[in-house]
Amino acid sequence: MGTMAPPSTQTPPRDLCVAVCTFNSMRTLPRLIDSVDGWSARVLLVDSGSTDGTVDYGRGRGCEVVHRAWEGMLSQRAFCLEQAAAHAWILLLDSDESVEPDLRQAIERMLNDDATGAPGAVPFDAFDLNRKVFFEGGWLHHTFQPEYRVRLVRGGRGRVAGSGPTGRGIHDRIEVQGGVGRLTGTLRHDSWFDLEDFWTRSIRYSRDAARTGERGGGVFDILMRPSLAFLKQYVLRRGFLDGRRGFMMASMLATGNAMKQITIAMHRWRGTGHDRIT
């Protein structure tokens, strides 16, 4: 398990804003703030009504907290980009993510290079970061890997887009017109607290996928995609090398995919009134 690096004393914080969407995030928020403390100029929490102490804890740690009613992750993330646009760089994090020491060092090196002002020192408008899941007390070194996400973007250069045919799906991504680089290091993802948490989120994601018009829900999708999801993670991504954790995670993802496909099918069935799944 990675440990948090102490605040840097070699250089002052660069013009970096860490922007986070929060809601009842006390399970993971302390680790997140520890991981960015001392080397970011601003930590912005966009909170959608936490009742577990998230707001008070964040303010007590020196974070700026802004309340904004939940309108979906795309809208919240876009708001984060808008609020932080004046900064040179924006690091967009989920509340269950944190920066491991190796990634912190890579980001700091990039910020120092960019601060020199030398032409071409940092020829990118954004960077991919590799997110790695920490699950049941250990890392998943193979399952999901690699999982690169654009999370570090120049202020004013990024826009948020969603998945699915309408572009409003539940899986958001950051788009920029300029080049996208890639930094080494690990973005830790403490995604699920326990199995019950996984099922609860899977139900919510399934409903959101159906509501936003995600593809799927056909006979092939229901019968085959859960098995394909398992094979992708356990065989192609070599999740079997993660031992028990890898097997359980691949199995959970397969079950979650089945839940999603059935929910989409039911939503479409009710919407058309046809007593048939195509």
Short description:
The chain is an alpha/beta fold and 278 residues long.
Topology at a glance:
Blueprint: E1 14-22, H1 29-36, E2 40-47, H2 54-60, E3 64-67, H3 73-83, E4 89-94, E5 97-99, H4 101-115, E6 126-135, E7 138-139, E8 148-154, E9 158-161, E10 173-176, E11 180-189, H5 195-211, H6 219-236, H7 243-272
Parallel strand pairs: 1-2, 1-4, 2-3, 6-11
Antiparallel strand pairs: 4-8, 5-11, 6-7, 6-8, 9-10
Helix pairs in contact: 5-7, 6-7
Q: State the order of secondary-structure elements, H for helix, E for strand.
A: EHEHEHEEHEEEEEEHHH
Q: Please give the share of residues in helix.
A: 25-40%
Runs with pLDDT <50, length 5+?
A: 1-10
Distance between the termini: 46 Å
Cα-based radius of gyration, to the nearest Å:
20 Å
| Bulk shape | globular
Oligomer: single chain
Main sheet properties: 9 strands, mixed
Mean pLDDT: 89
Give a quick set of tags describing it.
single chain, 278 residues, alpha/beta, nine-stranded mixed β-sheet, two-stranded antiparallel sheet, 7 helices, 11 strands, disordered N terminus
